[in-house]
# Entry
Amino acid sequence: MDLKSRLRSIVGGPQRAARELTYEPDTGRYEASIDLDRVADVLGGRVVSNGYGRALIVDRRYESDRFHGTRRVGDCDVADGELLRLLDPGLPPRDLTIGACGDDDRHGRTLFVDLETTGLSGGAGTVAFLVGVGWFDLGAFQVRQFLLTSYASERALLCAVAECFDAAALLVTYNGKTFDVPVMETRWLFHRMPMPLESVRHFDMLHPARRLWRARVSDSQTQTWPETGNAGSPSTALGAGCRLTTLERVLCDVTRVGDVPGMEIPSRYFRFLRTGDARPLEAVLEHNRLDLISLAAVASRAVELVEHGTDRCRDAAEALALGKVYERAGSIDRALACFDHAAGDRRAHVDVAGEALYRRGVRLRRDRRFVEAADAWRAILALPAKRSRILTALRQYAVEALAVHHEHREKDYEGARELAQQLLDDAMFEDRDRARHRIARLDRKIASNDNSQLFA
Amino acid sequence: MPSNALPALAGDPLKKDQLLQQAVARLGASPKPGGPDAEAIVTATRRLPAVAASYAPFPEQTDPRLRAALAARGIDQLYTHQAEAFEQVLAGRNVVTITPTASGKTLCYNAPVLDAILKDPSTRALYLFPTKALAQDQLAELHALAELAIQHGAPEIGVFTYDGDTPSDARRAIRGKAHVVLSNPDMLHSGILPHHPRWAKLFENLKFVVIDELHAYRGVFGSHLSNIMRRLRRVCRHYGSDPVFICSSATIANPRELAEGLTERSFELIDRSGAPRGEKFFLFVNPPVVNAQLGIRRSYLSEARRVALEFLKNKLQLILFAQSRLATEILTTYLKDAYQGPPGASDVIRGYRGGYLPNRRREIERGLRDGDVRAVVSTNALELGIDIGALDVSVMAGYPGTIAATWQRAGRAGRRSTRSAAVLVASSAPIDQFIIRHPSYFFDASPEHALINPDNLHILLDHVKCAAFELPFTTEESFGLDGTTGTAAVQDVLAVLGEEGFVHAADGQWNWTHESYPADAVSLRSVSSDNFVVVDTTHGERVIAETDFTSGPAMLHEKAIYMVEGQLFQVERLDFDGRKAYVRAVDCDYYTDAITYTKVTILDTFASDAAAGPIADDRYPIAEESGSELPATNIGHRSSDLEHRVAAASLRSHGEVHVVSRVVGFKKIKFYTNENVGSGELDLPEQQMHTSSYWLTIPSAVMGALPYGGDDRRDGVIGLAFAMRHVAQLLLMCDGGDIGLSIDGGSLERVTRTGGKGGVPEALQVEPNIFIYDNYPGGIGFSRPLFDMHGALLDRTRELIAGCPCESGCPSCVGPEGNTGPRAKAVALEILERLLSGSCERAQRVSHAHGAGHGAPASAHVGESEGRSPSDEGEIPF
# Structure
């Protein structure tokens, strides 16, 4: 066996069956010649030049009265302001001095960003071959896409992208903190070019979207108990149900026709590199454009929610989620109103109503509004009895909280004792011990109360 | 032994010396061989004299803050080897130091690295250790030194480990702040190099790469590391840096060659230690034979226990090395049973092995340093440079497998000034028995060569993928040896990768055009990443181990006993296609050994000759054979004598072969006694591999002249092969699984005798071949050295067989008699004698062109090698 056939047998693997090629085999004999002007023609773009060479740009404009699903494009604009900081308290406030002195209206722009890459792993060999950015211009959504037409021209592309990013005051992405921005940074670092993104504020829509709509888009009905489940943990990237395409369908009734599946995107690009034929890329560019509009649509819907509060909530679950978002941002009154709204919604599932009351109670108690908190605990106990693990746990909690309230706030030892007895009857394991201790203590207090009354 | 408390440690050094000598003398005077209560035989006692320290001043230009920091630790001058390393590094040369344990080797790299950082704070250094634990150990040391330097006016020096345990939120900070990054090859391979843009600051300023424990990188691991270094140098070139390499190694025969092979840079070797050393006694102990006929010896574990107790009684602190985790636990129990401390007192006898939690390990290490722990029983986990202070005695239960490792372990006892002892207790394995009966092989010969083969096609291909992911190859670029001496040119490799869609050539470069992250598919500790996982079903399902694809069927066939952490599991089901073996914990007193039917076909003969060739080559010197202390000066004389004797002998060859193997059955073997207690048949798919091999052809003249019948001749060849394999393992410094053995397509097992069938070798060829092949696809570089060591291989094999006291074969020489046949030992010796004495005529051998006598598969390839005339004999066509 000569060396090449041995190499082939190792690369191809001994067990691998004959397979269908999804690309033209690269025999190394020729280099596909990519005619930049023709590619621009096919994709409806234009070629721009900078110090590093030539880059391909595709521009599209979506006028404000156009509809994306049920949502008007003109309503998708996201104002860069305090409302965003309600959704993401970590976002630094806008530095108004920049906007104030900006004579160029591009400065201070909010840029929506989404990449298409050659792989999902990151690292030096993962390339962003399509950088899609979008912004609002006089109510219309302007999309600009930068396409890498050969690896050798990446610096020219990065230079053009950097120019565009320089104008931004805020980036809006979907999972960009974990993926898109690190990938872009790696590209600039790879070519040892200055990084434009370091100082730009970044709003990643993924995490607020999870908080607001995870319950709605999640197929599974299993919910976690709020105290222990760490419900907001964004540990898995784009975990079940919170993908952008799911959200656009659920929130805006968008259905895509003939969309390219995400996993097929890199191989389409590799095929383009080998053949120079840009036609299969048209669908990839369209996919990227739809992602950008949907990102704007979803972000604007979230902003709308925090702006208008319960009025815009579709149901109790959304109100509860919104309440949690407000609470996290320190907007307590609005949070309490949301919890109230969710608890008062008669169509609400008891679990949702129960959790809303629970959160309301905890919040009020923390703010030392004990009487109102006690009302919340009583409201939990007044919920229709239903077999539900969550509700059972909530009731347990409410009884104990009420017992505490009666013992320490109201000094109503008899009432507290009654509740503690109820607790003991329902509790298990160490909760029973806690309940017994409480009863014993209350009995002592009642006895000494009796004694003092006796001596009084 | 009644339970009693240990006497206090001897504190006074003079008293301690006395006690040590007493114990050594008592062990040395154990005379009664034979009989039921036979004592062990001490086969050698050596006294290694004390060596005084030799010092040298710091290099002129040493940063004063570093000097002050070292002075604060009581270091006012350097040992000569430290100073030399420092000077060489200052002069920009790559250095490799080989120095014994406890000679201050870390300063050889810490001093020049810290000096450079103090002078230029942008300086960066990368340290590589073979294990995470070693990196942690060094982190503490380097931290302490950096802290002292800061007290003496140095700016902040960032020292961090970066490995799989580093939390992800700390990683970004480390990338920016670390002056010194302590990591391991696996992390460099999959976590650092593929993300090099994020490490730009490190790579732009990388001045030093430190590779500690260099000797650990041999075989597959070393071949991978060599390719990782190629990738590292490419990335450094991209960022415009060209680091100096500082390596340190235990004593091996070819440290410079290994360092140069791993980094493809030229090196200065520093092999004279200036560190002082106390006097050391070294004893070899062989457990007595209890059944001469079967060649069964008393358990070496009991013997090791006896030796250890002898020293413990004399108030000495010791480390006892065991060969496996299981043996570690057994010996710990033995010693604890013998010495139970007072109730409530802390344990004075501890076990130590991989699998213990880090906290527990640290506690034991501290206990050893403080003297609270009197004896520690350990696997090789304590062989490498973990700091455990100066112990008095090192006892090894079983030969560690290599001369280098034995010296490492012996070095854990006895530091700079005190007297110490090391005792090797042999097991009944052939290698142990050879070493124990030929002490001079150990004491006087050079240690082993560490071999690597970075151009193994499988390994090379994997790393070319990783390299292409990291940086595009230009269409002119080379990688490593690249096409010289039979290696693949990287442009050819890239062309094939291009055909499969991994890369694409455009604008003068090969770009990575694949979605995968290639480093994830490469495991540095094996050739192929395809593997079997072992699933424990005792309680639920839990993956407990994995095994590479090649050895899967032999280790994980149904009913096999699989061992992990000393625990025994039996394989209940092997899902071959799903690559899973389902096991269940069992308690039994035997293990299993697979019977593999192997057929080797010669594809290409690289070199072949009838002469023994350069057997006295100074790379592989012949050791003196002797039971006592003979001066080493005889070696030269003896070797040339040997060369003369071997010169007119057998046919040796090496080349490429095709190996087809199938596991056809298994044997059950009792622990310790190695008795065969049962067997079974198996039907598993065959495995094929293309690898390299050494082979010995026994000339028909030798075979024909044997005064034995056909069956006996066959037994003799099988017995010879059995012994040769073990000696080859000894000479190659490799693990048993690294090499395979085959005789002209026949299995080596006489299964018929134990009730099975199917593995019986066919009738021997007129000129049988014994193949010792690299047991990895593509070969790992053992066959060429073995070809060069042919003379030594035969000579050592003869010594092993002739020196074995058994009557007609035992597990320590030609294999147990029940397996090999009654005359195997005699015939094997006869063949060796004839091969070594050259009874057949030279002219006669020349007519036996290689390949002519091999069966059909071999002769089909004769054409390929015919270009080489048989008259070229003695010349190696390289």
Remarks:
- Chain B touches chain A through 46 residues (CB under 8 Å).
- Residues 13-50+277-427 of chain B form a domain with the Rossmann fold fold (CATH 3.40.50.300).
- Residues 710-732 of chain B form the longest helix (23 residues).
